[in-house]
Amino acid sequence: MSTCEFESLEKSLESHLPEAELAEVKRILFGRETQRLELPTCAVKAAAEREFELKGYKFDAAQEQLRPPKAVRVGLVQHHIVLPTDAPILDQINAMHSRVGEVVEVAAMCGVNIICFQETWTMPFAFCTREKEPWTEFAESAEEGNTTRFCQELAKKYNMVVISPILEREELHSTLWNTAVVISNSGNVLGKSRKNHIPKVGDFNESTYYMEGDTGHTVFQTQFGKIAVNICYGRHHPLNWLMYSMNGAEVIFNPSATIGALSEPMWPIEARNAAIANHCFTCAINRVGTEHFKSEFTSGDGKKAHHDFGHFYGSSYVAGPDGSRTPGLSRTRDGLLVVEMDLNLNRQVSDKWSFKMTGRHAEYAEELKKAARHDFKPKIIKE
Amino acid sequence: MSTCEFESLEKSLESHLPEAELAEVKRILFGRETQRLELPTCAVKAAAEREFELKGYKFDAAQEQLRPPKAVRVGLVQHHIVLPTDAPILDQINAMHSRVGEVVEVAAMCGVNIICFQETWTMPFAFCTREKEPWTEFAESAEEGNTTRFCQELAKKYNMVVISPILEREELHSTLWNTAVVISNSGNVLGKSRKNHIPKVGDFNESTYYMEGDTGHTVFQTQFGKIAVNICYGRHHPLNWLMYSMNGAEVIFNPSATIGALSEPMWPIEARNAAIANHCFTCAINRVGTEHFKSEFTSGDGKKAHHDFGHFYGSSYVAGPDGSRTPGLSRTRDGLLVVEMDLNLNRQVSDKWSFKMTGRHAEYAEELKKAARHDFKPKIIKE
What distances in angstroms separate CA B280 from CA B26, B36, B39, B90, B244, one per listed residue? Predict the structure, then answer.
C-alpha cells in the first residue's frame, strides 16, 4: 500500500480491531473520547455533492457556577490545489476561491464561528522549486488584496471569523511574508500574524522567499474567543506555542503544508503536545495531494531532479488541553473538520494540572538568556 | 476489558491489523522503524526465568567520514513494588534492591552501558497518602545511603553508568528532595539531579514532601555520552527539556510514576515531542502495578476514601530525534528495555531540521522575562 493511498489511521483501526480493544487503543491514542457532533442534513448532503469529507466532533467541559459555557465552533479546511500549477495565475487563485467558498458555505450551515484555511491557501506550495517566477506573483496585500476582500465577504455573509494564510506582499518595505490575515466576523481586517520560524530543512529553505516574522505573538480577541496563528514550521518550536499562550490565546491555529516522507510521524505529536503543555486548544491543518510543477528541481538529497515535492497528507485535527484529540481528517481528500469546544475547559485543566503555576518562567528567562549567548558555558559535570 | 488488563497498544495492533496496513499504521504512529536488537540467549532465558519482559531495539545513524559511530546501549527498568507496603521498611528496600539487581544482571548480559530506574524506585509511590510516616523513612543520603552504595557496586561490577532516582534526605539543610543520583561506571557518584517541577495535580501535591530542585539543568559527561535526568512531572514543561538540551544532553532520562486515569494519553506525546524539538534521545520510564496502602485516603475528587492511587501503566519507551520511537514495554509487567542508539543521529537530525538554529532563543528570553512579570501586558488586538 503506497503512502498516497492509505486513507487514515483511524479508519484502519476501526475496520480491524475488536470493540473492547479498540476502546482501549483509542483511549491511549486519543484520550478522553471527543463526542460526534450532530451536523445538519443539508450540510452533509452538500459536502457529499461537493466531494469533500465533513466530520464533526465536540469537546465538553464541566458546568461551572459563575461562568456560562463558552462554546465555539471552529472549522478547519484542507484541500488540493484546483487547477494545474501552470494554469494562468488569476485562474488558479479564482478556482481556489471558488472551491474554498463552497466549503465555507457548508461550514456556515454547520454553525462554524471561526474558520481557518491551510498555509498559503491560494497557491501551490511552490517554494520547493526555488523559482521566484511565477510564484511570487501569487503574493497579495494582507489589507487590500483580492483574497482578503474575498474573505471579508465570506466573514460578513456568514458572521464568521476567517483566518486566511497567504503569501503577503508588503509594498511598504518591498518585502514578502508568510502571513495569516485575521478577519473579524464584522468583515474588518483585525490584523495579521507572520510566520515566526522559517524552515531550513535539508535544502528546503523558505528564507529564499521570506524572513522570520516581525509580528511577535499577537493574540486576536474575537467575539468567539481569543485566538492566535502559529504558521507551519513554528509548530516545532515549543517556545512559540508558549508565547502565544502567555499572551492569552485560547485556541492556536497551525495552518501548515507538509509532506509524508518528512514529517508525518511528528504531526500527531507537536500540536497536541502544545495543547497539553499550554492548557489550550490547538488546530493542526495540512494541505492534501501531490502538486506537479513544470520545471524540474532537485532536493539536495543526491536524487535525480523531479517535478513534485511529495504527498501532502492532510490529517488535520484538533487537540484539547486535557490530552484528548479528535480523529484526523483523511490523508487524501479535501475536507472540513467542524469542532465545537467549550473554552472553559482550558482554565479547568489549568486549575487541575497547574503547568503554568509550576512553570518557573522567570528563572527560565534568565537561563535562556545566558544559554543563547556566544560565550555560554554549559553546566556539565565530568568525573 | 479493564485498563489494568490491557497488555499493550503494540500487541493489539500486531494481532489484528493486516500486514500492509500495519506497516502504514506503525509508520504514522512510531516513525522510521527501530530495528530489533539481537539479545544474547542467556539474557532472554534469564529474563523469562525471572519473569520480566525483555525487549531490544536499535536506532541507526548514517555513516560519517570524520566521526566514528557513537553507539551506546541504554537500559530502562520498570517494576512493581516487591513486598506489601506495610512490610518493614528495610525489608521493602532490600527486596527492591534484590529484584532490580537481578534485572541489572540481565542488562549487563545485554551490554547495557547506562541504566536508569524508575522514580523513587526503592519505595512505594506513597505521596498520594499525604502521610509523612513511615514514608519519609525511605529517604536516604544521595552520597552515602545504602541504595547509592548498592548502585555503586552494580556500576563497578558491570562497568555501567547507573541512574538511581530516590527520595533524598539532605542532612545539611534538613530537607527532603526527589533526586536522581548519577553513578559513573567507575563506581563514583558523579552527581545528582533534583526534580525541577513539583506536581500540583488536583489534590496530589508532592510539595508536601519536597520542593523544586536547586540543581538546575546539570548534564553529566559519562564515558558513553552526555546525559541528563528530567524527573517525572518535569516532562510536562517543554522549557525543562530545552535547558537540559541546551546544556549539551544527548540522552535525557525521564524516570516517572504516573497512573492511567491521569496521564496515559499524554505519555506517548511529551517525551517524544521533547526528542523531536531538541534533537536528542529521550527515555520515558514509568512504574507498573497498583500499590495498596493500609490507611485509607481521599483524593480531593468527591469520591470515597480508598487504599490505592490507581494503576501505574508502565509503557516505558525511547524516542529519537528524527520522530521515531521504540514500541513501549508492557502496561502490566516488570520489564527491561534495551536500546542501542548511535548518538551521531542527534547532530545529523539537527543539521537537517535546524530547530536550534531557527530557534530565536535570545528573543524568547526577552519576551519570557516580560511575560513572567506581574505587570505583563499581553499583546491582544481587539476590534
Answer: 21, 20, 25, 38, 10
